[in-house]
Amino acid sequence: MKAMQKSLMTAAVVAATALSGAAQAEGISDDKVKIGVLADMGGVYADICGPGCVTAVEMAVEDFGGSVLGKPIEVISADDQLKPDVGSAKVRQWIESEQVDTVAGLVSSAVVGAATKVLTDNKKIALISTAASNAFTTSSCSPYNVHWTYNVTAVANGTVKPMVQAGKKKWFFITADYAFGHALEKVATDVVEQNQGEVVGAVRAPLGTTDFSSYVLQAQASGADVVALANAGADTVNSLKTAAEFGLTQTADVAGLLVFTPNAQAMDPSTAGGMTLTTGFYWDYDDATRAWSARFKERHGAIPAMGHAGAYSMTMHYLKAVEAAGTDDSDAVMAKMKEMKPDDFFARNATLRADGRMVHDMYTVKIKNPDERRDGDDIFKVVDVLAGDQVYEPMLPECNFAKS
Amino acid sequence: MNDKKLYLALFILALAAPAVLYPVFLMKVLCFALFACAFNLLLGFAGLLSFGHAAFLGTGGYVTGYLMINAGLTPELGILAGTLAAGLLGAVYGKLAVRREGIYFAMVTLALAQLAFFFYLQAPFTGGEDGLQGVPRGELFGFIDLSNNLAMYYFVLAIFVFGFWLIRRTVHSPFGQVLKAIRENEPRAISLGYNVNDYKWLAFVISSALAGLAGSTKTLVFQLASLNDVHWHLSGEVVLMTLVGGMGTLLGPLVGAGAIVTIQNYLSGGELGNYIHIILGAIFVVCVLAFRSGIVGQFQKMLKQNF
Fold it and tell me: Which GO-annotated molecular functions does the record name (chain B) (predicted)?
């Protein structure tokens, strides 16, 4: 009986020590910092943030020196197959059985929504590079979300506002018929109306539509000054192509609200030339962006899209914060990330706000005409640099996690 | 008698499994296994190929998720509600579908399932492409905290065992015998005085309710109901699971679901992730060409020949 009591006591003491160790979380847990990259490896967004995002995160880890506070940094990756259930299950598994400290990448807003819920429940940081929705720092904000590259508000403000103010008052939307498209259309509509513009109509095209002719004809009949494409990826490419075939590009301006570098490369320059759009990064902006992009291209085989550069930049910032905090405990690292100013080739005049929104300079660019292009990578002409606080939405009071 | 020993052994194995394997993975297998078993009740025992079973899985999931988020139901009530909703939908869809046979039956179920898909895509409460996120797992009967993976696992296991028992009971009942008679020779069943459509309809309702049960459980496990649960891809996947495992055998769907989920899980992390659909397609073709009775069916044949 005595022996039994003694062993029970010992067990209790051991358990208590183990628990207190976990609670304090000083230093690096599990003797390594492990970053999981969740991205779309083979789907429609693979070019935007797929294997390229893994490369970018790996580059950041290598540039950081491969270790932090004397402990190795490990990168693992998985395909979310653009399915929220697959993505959230993967993240859960990473946290529960593979000691992952943070998840980077994070592409499709649907997957990210599910993944960030799991991450927040487990107090792990989400480093969101490519998701478009602004929900992660507004309606479903969390003290563990970091949203880096851009969001729908920024691209809508950046592209729509100057056009409306320049006198293009009548707008028509061709919208991808799902959550992302609706969100983009709504944000852009607000911007149009705030600037005394008018939305004369909108059509919803299912995701993956190949024949846009009926939608383009409706746009043409509306008499709008600007036809805005509230869609992404192949949908943007296809709708623009149809708009050109029907002569819409001659009678009205076509604005792509969300165009990534690989999509712009896929467009026919003779029809896309002159189109205005907003991006969080352009590889050919200055020497710093060119230097990084050249290294990225050497490894990845294509110039970086904004999500790639964002993934590098935020991984770097995370690792610096781990070093500064002296621990990989999420709360401490998050506090450091928000305290330190991100500053690199990607993040210019940048701050990471208390709600997790990284506010930085955005770029208004025009797609170059065929005769202006040196080669296939020479696609944008930067026409304006937009200060971050002009294009991102202000922080919501309920999302201010500064002092909790 | 042998059956009982086999089930007991499997049950003990299932009880011990979470010590070795990741519980969430096991729960996924069990949810899909229940789904495949429910589907197999129709295909294997009544000879009805439903190509829209994802609609019931998804309905169960969405209803459970919605009620648990917004009405604060406990898990057992949430699952019950999801199962009932799927059963009701099955009753309506079944009434329409069983009037046709063969390829027409499959097409009608597919069309009806697509209706459900577009409903869930557009309905505001489902969150569209984002799905219903953040479904709480809650506390079973008000005192068992299901956020613990092990507690959740044994709850899912209990649900699966119940579902499996119900299917086994159905198959071995006189009702099940009539279903098999209809599968083998429908005109003869009619001439014997059975109201064939009513039998088929009832089998359809049981099957869809159980598919809904699987969907409700899955939503609790992943805390998420998404469009993938109602997509026709999933209706196809369940056919694959059933055929690979062994159509018309009780354990076949369990084995098939285990095999397919394992393959998907294994491939999604590796280099071959991009080829997952091609690999599954190849498995399907090989399965249909080489061993049509599936893993369990083939195994039973070997047992019969050699012992």
Answer: branched-chain amino acid transmembrane transporter activity
